[in-house]
Amino acid sequence: MRLFAVRGFHETSMAEVARAASVSKALIFWHFKTKEELFMAVLNRLLEPYFIDFAEEAGALDEQAQIVRLIDLYMQFVRENGGSIRFFVAQLLHDEKLSDGLTNQVLQLYQGYRALLVDLIGRAQERGLCKRDFPPADAVSFMLSTLNGLLIGFLFSGENGVNLDGAIAMLRHWLFGDAPQNGPGECPPSP
Amino acid sequence: MRLFAVRGFHETSMAEVARAASVSKALIFWHFKTKEELFMAVLNRLLEPYFIDFAEEAGALDEQAQIVRLIDLYMQFVRENGGSIRFFVAQLLHDEKLSDGLTNQVLQLYQGYRALLVDLIGRAQERGLCKRDFPPADAVSFMLSTLNGLLIGFLFSGENGVNLDGAIAMLRHWLFGDAPQNGPGECPPSP
DNA sequence: ATGCTTATTGACCGCTAGGTTAGGGACTCG
DNA sequence: CGAGTCCCTAACCTAGCGGTCAATAAGCAT
Asked: Which one, A79, A174, B18, B170, has the greatest CB density within 10 A?
C-alpha cells in the first residue's frame, strides 16, 4: 500500500514490494496472480476509510446544522486523507483502465454525499432556513464545485496554501446569509 | 505529444514513440539526450496554448464586464483543452519530480490570473459594482475554488456531467447580485 | 569532386521488469 | 507415520526497456 500510494503503479516494481514486505517475490505471485491484481487489492484497502457513516450522528440536529456538519466532515476528511486522495485523483485522471472498479466506488460515494445534501437543502428551504434563490440540486452542484476546488487547492499547496475555513465561512454566508463571521481561521491572504 | 499525453510517461516506450513518428529509435536519442528530456520538451509544447493575452482585448470594458469575461475565458479554456489539462493535473499530482519546471509555469499562470481578478474586484468594489461583503483576495480565492471545482467536475464527467454555465450564473449572482438569469444553458439537473 | 557538419539507421548491449518453476518446510488429518 | 495441502523461496526465463555505436546518407560550402 505504501509503495503504490507514494510511487504509483508503474514506478513500483514487484521486487521492491517483496523487499519492503520482507518476503520473496514469488510469494506475492502466489497470493496475487498478477501485479494488476495486487494493485486492485491495494486500491480497495486504501479506499476503506472513505466510507463514513453520517446518518447516525446527525439525527438530532436541524437542517442547517446538518448541512454545516456535512461540509465540516468533507473538510475534515480532506485534511486527514490528503495523501491517499491525491493518489486516487491522480490515478482516476490518469489510468482509466486500471481504475475501473475504483471509479464506480468513488462515484457512488460522491452521489451519496450529493443526494444527502440535496435532500437537506430542499428541506431547509421549505422551512425557510436558507436562501431560496436556486433549486436545491443547482445549489448543491455549486457547493460541491467549491468544495472540490478547495480540495484540489489543498492537494496542490497544502494546508497553509489554501484557506479552508475562510472559504467555508463564505459558503455558509452564501447559503444562509450569515454575517461573515471569522471562525478559528484568521483569514490571512493566501500566498 | 499524443502518446505521452494519453498514456503517460512510464507507459510510453521510446520504441513506440519512434514507430509513431516513423523514425528510428536512435534518431530520437540523437535529438534528445534522454527520455526525460524528450518528455520535458513535450510538456512545454503542450503548455504553449495555455498562454493567452487578456489585457489587450478587455481595455474598453468596465470592471464587471471584464470579470465576467475572465470567467468566461477560463471556462472556454477548460472546454477547449480538457484533454491536456487532464494530463497536466494528473502529472502534477503524481510525479512531483518529473514536473519540476512545469509546476512553476502553471503556478505563474495561475497567480497571474488570480492577481488580475483581485485587482478587478477591488476596483469594482470601490465603484460599487459588486458586493463588498469580503476583501477582494478572499472573494477571488472563493471564486477560484469554484472554478477549479468546475474544472475537475468537467475532467471527470465531461461536458454533460457538469453544468458549467449554470454554475457561472450562480457565481455572477453571488458576486454582483444579478437576478438569476438563465443563460444559454438550460440548467437541467445534472445526472 | 572534396571535405565537413548535420541527420539517420540497424544492430547491439546491459539490465530490469513481470512472471515461472521446481522444490522444500510446516501443518493437518487419518 | 505418511499423504496431502498450504505457504514460501532461490534460481531461472524471456521480453522489452533505455541507451549506445559504427556506418552512412544528405546537405552545403569551397
From this structure: B170
